[in-house]
Amino acid sequence: MGLKERVEVSSPGKLMLFGEHAVVYDQPCIVTAVNQRLMVTVEAREDGKLVVNAPDVGLEGYTRNLADMGKKEKVPKAVKFVETAVSNYIEAYPGVKGVNISTRSQFSSKFGFGSSSAVTVGVVKGMAEVFGKNISDRELFDLSYKTVLNVQGVGSGFDLAAAIWGGTVYFVTGGKEISPMDIGELPLVVGYTGIKADTSTFVRQVAELREEYTDMVDSIFNLISDVVEEGKVVLEQGSQRKIGELMDINQGLLNSLGVSTPEIENLVFAVRQSGAHGAKLSGAGGGDCMIAYTPAFARRKVEEAIKYAGGVVIDVKTGAEGVRVEP
Ligand code: MEV
């Protein structure tokens, strides 16, 4: 693999279909990649510096000496994933003399589509391309997952799998299993609650609940796992009614973990009453997006219901391509 001066890679955002929260505790989930992408441009430099531009999050010309990275200095939140990914890449594959990283997103970081994970995957993949390392998808996952854990301390890594493999993926915590599923695009309507939720906060909140009610919460995780296993079967069969019913069951279980909100429930009930087969939050809860599994004839009505209930319809297609080098 030869060296390139400059490479642009893009990776998709994601939506969790089944299994959030339980997947943090050695359980499976099913995630799908969406066709809104995050672009990362990587360019080699020779002066020992990392320069980051991320205009979408108001960051221009952030500069750091590669030699200083890893020192416990305060790093702006917007650059944490980039800087940690660069640092982990260089630790694994030394010899980088300097690098420019620019990011640009087709989706708002507020939606919970996994922008931090998509950025991380883009940085690692882009650096491998520019600095001539032929890394496998598994290596890309492992370095990216290390980065996410360094920055956030928690997380299953499912969103990295969506960003790397694309399509719809059956995934077990930390990538213990990553199995692409053979299903087409799903008839989802996506509603944004208008509230940006912080994933780590809700993962920690569930951890606290589990400390207090360990057996009960573990039983809920086991039930969520049952939903995921059954969800895998019915998604592959294309049984619309059952997919919807399982989403409703999954939503009830998430509610019992305390991660739903009035805004989410408002949208969920509105779409169910307007003809969706079923609906649930997607992600950590606390806000972000909900998904409604919707027959084609009810789509318009479901979209109207989301708007009427105060949400914003986000137009995305599922099963999008994983990380790729742009021409
Ligand atoms: C957040 O989008 C999904 C969680 O399961 C966290 C994770 O899996 O990393 C809550």
List keywords for this structure.
single chain; 327 residues; alpha+beta; 8-stranded mixed beta sheet; 41% helix; binds (R)-mevalonate
Bound molecules: (R)-mevalonate
Number of strands: 12
Molecular shape: globular
| Mean of pLDDT | 96
Number of helices: 9
Strand-residue proportion: 15-25%
Major sheet characteristics: 8 strands, mixed
Low-confidence stretches: none
H/E element order: EEEEHEHHHEEEHHHHEEHEE
What is the end-to-end distance?
Answer: 17 Å
Q: Give the radius of gyration.
A: 20 Å
Structural class label: alpha+beta
Q: Helical proportion?
A: 40-55%
Summarize the structure.
The protein has 327 residues and is α+β, with helices and mostly antiparallel strands.
Outline the structure in words:
The model has no long low-confidence stretch (mean pLDDT 96). The chain is globular and about 60 Å long. It is built from nine helices and twelve strands. The strands form two sheets. Strands 1, 2, 3, 4, 5, 6, 7 and 12 form an eight-stranded mixed beta sheet that branches. It is 41% helix and 24% strand. It is an alpha+beta fold. β9 and β10 form a beta hairpin.
